[in-house]
């Protein structure tokens, strides 16, 4: 059985002098809604782990 790696979305906001993580979710739409709600200085990162080689 081969599991497909799932993508995780990380929503971060810039608060001087660092980026602060606000939300971590597997739901893309939820991540974009949160970013839109926050407004400026927001980034969304997509993290997809690579499958392990055997």
Which oligomeric form is depicted?
Answer: single chain
Structural class computed from helices and strand pairing: alpha+beta
Mean pLDDT: 87
What amount of the residues lies in strands?
35-45%
**How many distinct beta strands?**
3
Radius of gyration: 14 Å
What order do the SSEs take from the amino end to the carboxyl end, as H and E? EEHE
Which segments are poorly predicted (pLDDT under 50) over 5 or more consecutive residues? none
Main sheet?
Answer: 3 strands, antiparallel
Question: Helicity level, as a percent range?
Answer: 10-25%
Spatial gap, N to C terminus: 13 Å
Number of helices: 1
Note the overall shape.
elongated
Strand order of the largest sheet: 2-1-3
What does this molecule look like?
The structure is a single chain. This protein is an alpha+beta fold and about 55 residues long. Helix content is about 20%, strand content about 40%. It is built from one helix and three strands. It has a three-stranded antiparallel beta sheet with strand order 2-1-3, covered by helices on one side. It is elongated. It starts with 7 loop residues before the first strand and ends in a 7-residue tail after the last strand. The model has no long low-confidence stretch (mean pLDDT about 85).
Which secondary structure elements does this structure contain, and how are they paired or packed?
Blueprint: E1 8-15, E2 18-25, H1 28-38, E3 42-47
